[in-house]
Amino acid sequence: MTSKRVLTCLVVACSAWAAPHSAAAQEAAPEVQWRTDYHKARQEAVEKGRPLLIDFTTKPCVWCDRLEAETFRTSPVASLLNDRFVPLKIDARTDTWLVEQLKVQSYPTCVLASPDGKILATQEGFLEAGRFHELLQRALAAVANPEWMARDYEAATKAVAAADYARAVALLKSILEDRGARPIQVKAKQLLGDLEQQAAGRLARAKQYADKGQTEEAITIITELVRTYAGTQAAAEGGQTLSSLARQPEMKDRHRARRARELLAQAREDYRTKQYLCCLERCEVLATSYADLGEGAEASQLAAEIRNNPEWMKQACETMSDRLGKMYFQLAETWLKKGQPQQAILCLERVVQAFPNTRQAEAAQVRLAQIQGLSTQPVDFKKQ
Question: Does residue 331 sit in the same domain as residue 362?
Answer without folding.
Answer: yes
